[in-house]
Design brief:
Number of strands: 14
Largest sheet: 5 strands, parallel
Shape: globular
Amino acid sequence: MNKKWVDLQVNGHRGVDFVSPELSEKDIVQAIEELAEAGTAVFLPTLITASDELYARNVPLIKRTVEKYGLQKHVPGVHLEGPLLTCAGAHDPALQQECSAENVRKLHDLTEGFIKVMTLSAEAEGAPEAVAELKKRGIVPSVGHHTAGYAEIHRAADAGCQLLTHLGNACPNLVGRHENPLLAGLAEERMDAMIITDGHHLPADLIKIIFKVKSPDHIIVTSDACSLCGFPPGEYSLWGNRAVLTENGKLHNPDKQCLVAAAATMDMCMEFLKSLEFLSGEELLKVGRTNALKLLNMEDDL
């Protein structure tokens, strides 16, 4: 199978964490090289909810490193998964910020305009204005880490949002049976869905349901890989979480009863999806590469 995937959500890889205050140029180049060897040709370094100071340090560092080594084709920008969120999940809730157009402008300036995708929460009061501001600045708005229902999701779509961040994850374990972020996201036809197919974030049957509703033309697979990707099973600390990596590759916080990103590369996610045996080779290519490149307005010349 193709080994040149495009991943819109990579928190880190093999010890490199894009929200580490010690992130270095060497770390960034190492991650790009190792991910390329693992089958990820293009990716967005993803920075979860963090301080303004961290964003102002790390994103320009990534930008300068990419430009210095001529790697723009491999890393066209970053994904800010936060801090304009209402549902923290594995993130630090103390670092969440109000979802507003003003904060979008501030984050854009702090990061020297190197943001390609930003995730925010659809039910936040200022979400429509924030979505409009992101669109104005050429940033792809995506909604996730929320408890949004039908009205909030439709409102975000009305404002121009066309993407859902890891649909089915980063929401409370117990939600309303008829109205919840998963069903609302599935119902909104104007939004494409990013999903994590590492075999742990979503059950196989739910993956099939999402594909039946959205179709391969409107789904983008992401890995949500983190710095523990490539590490042996054990107990670690990640973003203030007790992160337990099991023998079968599940990375979770047993205290919060939530997953803590993923320990799988994009290639591993695509292999799991292929193993479900309901998609053609052309459809796998769409969800693992073509759709993401289209979203980024990049040529498919990998």
